[in-house]
Design goal:
27% of the residues lie in helices and 28% in strands. By secondary structure, the chain is α+β, with helices and mostly antiparallel strands. It has an 8-stranded mixed beta sheet.
Length: 263
């Protein structure tokens, strides 16, 4: 019997793995925003076109990357966030697996521009469908600009699965709100097709909630603050007069990470 098991080429393996990380444009938004938060950014801007299908760009003023790190970040399982298995029990960052950028770059046309504060020049890298196109020095501000164009351009079946622009934008806004709400010390902007959707200056939690949910809600919230030896619970709940039938304005975070829990 002839041998029938073959090792998949790396680009095909990355495209298959991308399906677990990148399900729609909002998946890309989540990964890139969380990377910016992990990079210590104090200003993060998100620009999208056509519900994220044509363009998703995240610009931050974080730590940036060296020339070597900029190239390495696109390799699968390459990460700066853990070094040993024991680190898994003390993770304080949003991500740690080192799969997101490899997955995104395998199903889109990606351009990365990044510079560390101490460097004179930055690094520009272009990758299309997992294929390295170019790497060269560039002039850019300290931090990172990550552009994702034409998501799923090389997988038409996946691209056809996407919903219309309004629905995809709604999913993007959901992910944006889930990252922006707990990180009140960061200035966030969201621009869709040149229209400013959110402009949230660094503030406190009450003002951040008002910026996301509307100023009319601000006067209907009651502060919650409970300290125990094992856990700290803080936030805001609405008064009975502000209650709604749907749970659209319920947000729960553990260590500033959004969670869903039926309990």
């Amino acid at each position: 019997m002839p041998d029938i098991i073959n090792l998949l080429p790396e680009n095909i393996a990355n495209q298959i793995a991308a399906g677990e990380v990148v399900q729609r444009p909002s998946s890309v938004v989540k990964e890139l925003l969380e990377n910016s938060v992990d990079a210590g950014a104090t200003q993060i801007s998100l620009l999208v076109k056509d519900g994220g299908k044509t363009l998703i760009q995240v610009i931050d003023n974080g730590n940036g990357m060296s020339e070597t790190d900029a190239r390495m970040c696109f390799e699968r399982h390459a990460t700066s966030k853990i070094k040993t298995a024991d680190d898994l029990f003390a993770i304080s960052t949003k991500g740690f697996r080192g799969e997101a950028l490899a997955a995104i770059s395998s199903v889109a046309q990606v351009e990365l521009k990044t510079k560390t504060p101490e460097s004179n020049t930055g690094t520009s890298i272009i990758i299309e469908g997992g294929n390295f196109v170019s790497q060269e020095p560039c002039q850019c501000a300290a931090g990172t600009s990550f552009s994702v164009k034409n998501l799923f351009f090389n997988i038409p079946a996946r691209r056809n699965f996407l919903k219309d622009d309004a629905i995809e934008l709604r999913h993007i806004i959901d992910e944006f709100e889930r990252v922006a709400m707990p990180h009140t010390d960061i200035t966030f902007k969201l621009i869709s097709n040149t229209n400013e959707v959110y402009n949230l200056p660094a503030s406190n939690l009450l003002l951040r909630i008002a910026g996301l949910a509307g100023n009319t809600l601000k006067d209907k919230l009651v502060a919650v603050n409970e300290q125990t030896p094992n856990i700290s619970i803080s936030g805001y709940v609405g008064t009975p007069a502000s209650s709604k039938k749907k749970r659209g304005l319920q947000y729960f975070f553990v260590n500033n990470r959004f969670i869903k829990s039926s309990y």
